[in-house]
Amino acid sequence: MSPSTDPADLLRDIAVERVREAAPAGPPALYRCELGGQWNAAFFPFGGVVSALAVGAMRDELARPEHTPRTIHTTFCSPVADGPLEVEVRVLRAGRGMSQLQATVRAAGSDDAGATTVGVFGAPRPGFAFTDAQPPRCPLPEDCTPPEPHPDPETTWNARFFEQLEVRQWGMHASWEEGWEPGRAESLRWMRYRVPPRAADGSIDPLAYAPVCDTMPPSIIQALGPGTPAFFAPSCDLDVHFLQPTRDEWLLVQARTHHAGDGYASASIDLWDRDWRLVARATQLMYLRVGVTD
Asked: CB-based contacts of 15: which residues, under 8 Å, 6+ apart?
């Protein structure tokens, strides 16, 4: 897929404006934004983008910079389309060292369930520091290759979301490629936003972790091999643990599908930077729509 001439800016596009203050024992705070189709998968915005939008609104409502995102859980109840959106935000608890909030994203004026995210924000605290997970054996992005484009440029496989990223992959294949053998259900891709989503201190804003943590389906194809039937894998949920900051624009997205059955698939992502630091970890349950092409 050829990238658009004007890449989208994630932080700008998911920025929200508060239009209603929270009332004691009354309605929650209300935020609005306009999300364009540049962050869409086949039909709707990537669930990780919707999650990032929710986390940004919760962060604005909390207004405590020392409390950074630590973990989120998003449940996708009904599709959230691009266009005008509303975000209802509730502060469940605002503590000295840790705070919990809830945000629901839906189309403006809609009564749909939308997507609800519960987030935990916390300040640094004394404890232990180590990483037991081992990074994969993968070269740096300069030594990896761009993904193989789909032979049909009009296919719904081509998500506009990926126009906003540079992608380099290692040891993985598309279902339409020939001459490769199935193996472990793992995909390895370096991803970099074309517009770096940097925070004020120069690090990558942790909001940017959630969208790339919502890219697990290609790991399924690696286990099934060439000729895998067309499928979509919408998200039932998405959990993201925000582990540590990085200033590196390139992030290695190591996705693994651990189990598939009954029309669902359970997967995880480890997110590494170029110094092989584990910056985030995500899990997800997807439901499979096999044979769907439009």
From this structure: 33, 56
Instruction: Please write the tens of the pLDDT for every residue from 150-185.
Output: 777 666 566 899 999 999 999 999 999 999 999 999
* CA separation for the pair 241, 78 (Å, rounded): 23
In which residue are the tokens 């932080």 written?
A: 11
Q: Do the Cβ atoms of 126 and 57 come closer than 8 Å? A: no
In what helix (H) or strand (E) does residue 254 lie, and over which residues does it extend?
Answer: strand 251-261
Residue among 164, 137, 162 nearest 147 (CA):
162
* Amino acid identity, position 290: V
Pairwise CA distance, residues 74 & 282, whole Å:
11
Domain 10-123+144-290 CATH assignment equals 2.40.160.210: yes
Exposed, middle or buried, 283 (CB in 10 Å: 0-12/13-18/19+)? middle
Report the distance separating Cα 82 and Cα 154, nearest Å: 20
> Is the pLDDT assigned to residue 202 strictly greater than 60?
yes
pTM: 0.95
- Per the DSSP assignment, residues forming a β-bridge with 120 are 71, 100
The reported pLDDT for the residue numbered 150 is 78
The DSSP-derived string for 97-128 is: SEEEEEEEEEETT--S--EEEEEEEE---S--
Q: Write out the H or E segment, with its range, that includes residue 89.
A: strand 83-94
How much is the average pLDDT of 118-136? 97
Paired tokens of 128: 């232990």
The residue whose two tokens read 């604005």 is 60
